Amino acid sequence: MKSKKMKDEIKRSFFTYAIVVVTVIFFIYLLLLSIVFRLTVIEPNEANHEHVLADVESGFAAYSNGMEELVNASSTIHTFLETGEQASEAYKILYDFRNHQSLHANFLLLNDDEEVVATSFYSGTEEEARNGVALNALTHKLEGAGVVGTRLTSPLRDVHHRSSYVFSTAIGGEEGLLGYLFYFLDLQSFPDQHYVYVTDLFENVIFSNYSYGLTTLGKLDVNRKGNWITHDGDMFYKTQTTLSKQGIQIITMTPISIYRLLVLYGVLTMMISSIAILLVVWFVAPKIVAKSLQPFDGLVALMASKKKYSHLDHEPNYEEVEIIYEEYRSRVSEVERLLDENQIIMEKKRISELKHLEAKFNPHFLFNVLEMIKYELMADPQSASDMVVKTATLMRYNANFGQTLVPLGEDIRYLNDYFSLQKMRYGKRLHYEMTFIPESILDEASIPKLLIQPLIENAIKHNIHKTHSLSIEVTIKTDGDLLTIEIKDNGMGLAKEKVEEIKAIYLGEKEASEQTGLHTVHQLIQLLYGDDYGLMMHSQVEDGTIMTITLPLKKG
């Protein structure tokens, strides 16, 4: 096998990684450009489109439905058309209806002879409006189509308004046709940063905020296939919705020609920059490598002058490595010795940490028990005596640092004494139950001493004063090679955010003065058995809390 030069390999790697870096930067640029495009073009366009769509759809529906109710339910308008009386009241009704709509309009009320009897137009404009819609009115009368929306072929120009769409309906009475009601929608205004068009199904423009793309006949002449369209050399992003019930289309277009140039110039700039960077790397890399490897070359020259040994048991990758390897082998035994010494030191440190954690399990309830004994001495000396004995047993067990692992049955006897003391304190307010699956596990399994008590203590401390009756269930069972200890209470439970905060504390991800007992339990388990074991917590508001300890099953 031909040996390779490390210098040549480094130079090749240098150039390869330069290509990778340039490629990644290029794709990041394209990704960021697409994100910017979405944030500045697509999302604003779609948001504006939804706004226009909601306004137009609700406005058209309001006129279509409202006018039908207006002419059918208003006896005032009927009286006005029949007799000419109640004119002011009829005007008020027509103005009020118009003023309550989101789309402003001017109204025109004709009698059955197609004469103007009421209007909001300025003088002269109503005649133009009447002449333009009279034929339509007759058609509506004959067809009986109810409220009909129609684009005006010749838009009306009022003094302050321009109308290109009209809602019209015939007004019938008991004896036949009474007249016609028209509402001419004013030209609507839309945000200037987008091209907004409202057309009928035949491309006739009803509203628009630009004349771009409009023919002299008022039609929209833009190829609208797909979301990306081109018209007269300009590019747009388009969103379109058709409201078939109203017979209209809403189109919003955002110019994107500047982004096309940005992509073009950006890609061109990236390509030129990439080529320049690669050329620099190609010519500069050998000099950098040579400069960086000067000490290494000196070391190679020094070691090459020494006697070679014949115990190389592999084919070296580089000539330089073959020389260094000899010196490396002479250091292996020294490194192994240091590793053995370090392992001994680490084991001593681990044992020291275990003893330190074990010492932290001092019962917090001691002062409460002593206070309770004080009052119990006066009320029931015999009960006080029992409490003293149980407390002494617990403290003796707690103070025994001779061993870390104890038989499960021995720790359960300690828990029973602990529960007895708590029952003496809280009476019927506290209930507990312990289950073992199988029962023989009490005599077979071993666990770290004082592992369960802190979790029981937490359950009592945080729930006993918040519930009428606190029940605690301790279930210990085997699952293959695992020993699972579950402590379940019926307390108030915790919100999800609080559970996550407590988990962060006992997992060591967050420092806090509270929940140190949980942290100590979790840390002790992982010190003894590794990261695959430890403490888990599940809680819901008003559904209690479940703490689960997972350990390897240790028999003996």
From TrEMBL:
The keyword Transmembrane applies. Pfam families: HATPase_c, His_kinase. Gene3D superfamilies: Histidine kinase-like ATPase, C-terminal domain. It is found in: Cell membrane. The chain crosses the membrane at residues 14-37, 262-285. Residues 451-555 form the Histidine kinase domain. It catalyses: ATP + protein L-histidine = ADP + protein N-phospho-L-histidine. InterPro entries: Bact_2-comp_sensor_kinase, HATPase_C_sf, HATPase_dom, His_kinase_dom, Sig_transdc_His_kin-like_C, Sig_transdc_His_kin_internal. SUPFAM superfamilies: ATPase domain of HSP90 chaperone/DNA topoisomerase II/histidine kinase (SSF55874). Its EC number is 2.7.13.3. One of its GO terms (molecular function) is kinase activity. It is a multi-pass membrane protein. It is an enzyme of class 2 (transferase). The keyword Membrane applies. It comes from the Bacteria. Keywords: ATP-binding, Cell membrane, Kinase, Membrane, Nucleotide-binding, Phosphoprotein, Transferase, Transmembrane, Transmembrane helix, Two-component regulatory system. Its main location: membrane. This is histidine kinase. The lineage of its organism: Bacteria, Bacillati, Bacillota, Bacilli, Bacillales.
